[in-house]
Amino acid sequence: MPPPSKKRKETREEKEEADDYDGPITGQEGASIGQQTSHIKNKLRRAELYSKLKHQQKKEKSAVRSKRQKEVQVAESMGLEPPPKRIPKTLENTREKDETMVAADDEEVAADEAQDEFAAHFNKDRAPKVLLTTCFKPSGVMYTFLSELLEVLPHAEYYKRNGLPLKKITQFASKRDYTDLIVLNEDRKSLNGLLLIHLPDGPCAQFRLSNLKLGKDIKGHGRATHHKPELILNNFGTRLGHRVGRMFASLFNQDPTFRGRRVVTFHNQRDYIFVRHHRYIFEEKSKKTKGKDPTTVVNARLQELGPRFTLRLQSLQKGTFDSKFGEFEWLHKHDMDTSRRRFHL
Q: Which of 269, 243, 285 is nearest to 100 (CA)?
C-alpha cells in the first residue's frame, strides 16, 4: 500500500490541531475569531472552527443580553435605577488621541484666536462680504448650484470669471473690500472642488466637494427666505478644526434673524464635513395619558431647503492662493490614512 502523500499528511495534522483547539493561541487574548483561526492552513477545518466559535460567541452575547434585560425588569418592578447601558464602540469614541485637541478653557488658543485673521469678524468690526466665482466655462449644473448657494449666503455676490487668472480675481476682490472669495470647480459637468480664500491676508483652504444634491432634487424641499441664517458647527475639536470652523463662521453674520428659522449646519464626522440647510418649526401638541391629565409637548420639525453636499479638506495654505511659493499650514498626504481611527479635524 503506497504511503500517504505529503498533502494528506498535512491535512491530518491540521485536523488534530483543530480538534484539540482550546482557545486563542498565545499572544492573541482578546483577538477576533478570524485572528484566532488564521493559523489553521486547511480551509475546510478553518471554516468549520470559525463557524463553531461564531455560534458560541452568539450564545454568550444572547445570555448576557437576556441577563441584563432581567436585571432591568427587576429594577423597574422594585422602583430602583436600572443598570447603566453599555456604550457601543465606534470610530469616534475610539479615535487615536490627538495632541492638538482643544479644551474648552484653553487660554493659549483663546489668545491666538483673539489675534488671528478672523478676529475682526468675531469682534463685529467687519461684516461678511463674499464673492462667488467659478472655473472656466461652467455648466448649467454649476449655475443652479450657484443660485442655491447665494440663498445660503445672504451677503454673497456672483462675479463671472471671464478667463481671469485666480491671482487677479483675488486682487480684484481684495481691493473692493470683500472678506472672502469662493471658487467652485467642476470636471466633466460634475462639481468636485471648492476653494475658500479669506481676504486680504488669508488663509486659503482647498476642499474636495462630493455628494452634491441640489434643492430641486430633495423630496419635500422648501425655498429659503432672505433672513440671516443661524450657524451650527459640530465636532471641530483640534487646532486645525478650530481654524477651519472659524473660516466657515466668517462667511455668516454674527447676528442671525431668528424670526426666519433658517439654520446652516457644518457637521464634521471622520474629517468629512457635511453641509446642510434647513428651516425649523416648533409645534405644541397635547399628549393624553391614561389616568392622567393631558400635558403639552413641544416638538421640533425640520424642512430641508438645500443644497446638500460634503467637503473634505485637502490643504490649508498661509496667505492667499499661491501654487508656486505658498507655505502650507496643513497638507493631506496618503501616508496620513494608515489608520481608520486617526482624524485631523
A: 243
